[in-house]
Amino acid sequence: VTFQTADPSKLEPVDPTSPDEWSNFIMGIFTEYAPLIPPGNTCNIRAAFSGNVPLGSGLSSSAALEVSFATFLEAFLMDSADINEKQRAIDRAVKCQHSSNTFVGVPCGIMDQFVSSAGLEGCALLIDCESNDYVPVRMGAAPSDNEQAVIVIANSNVKHSHSTGEYPIRVQQCKDATEALQKGVDANISSLRHATMQ
User: Fold this and answer.
1) Domain 8-158's class?
2) Please, what is the average pLDDT of the chain?
């Protein structure tokens, strides 16, 4: 992708009708980090991307692309001593999700960006999507039988597309259920996680 702009806030997606256009993810991340460029300075970037996450397979390739470019931009736009690494991972994930939602037009949650931003080898992540906090959980041998956890990734041959995903449907279902609980059970329930079995 090649683009030039004197005002990054005026950048627009290459193809606003195609949320799967990968260059939109790069441009969106650039708009998130452009405010960090000191006034009066220009930013010329030439970058190549390579990876082994299959595109369109539902394995978060767009989040991996966003987070890798965001990490690249942070390397020369931010002072490495100004923030702790955990907070930086959280901020990066939030910026990447915001870019997906607002610039690219993908109605996604934050899980994929969080995993790419804060994931650690040998660990799962316990993510609190309300507070944006996370805890790495070591995936080792099971204490009862000394067997290793096994994670299988299988090719279902089902093409994943952001424009036809189920996420917006689930978000609406959760909102509808929350509203029903507020009306019929407790007006103070702000999300399904605050509902109890009582």
Assistant:
1) alpha beta
2) 84
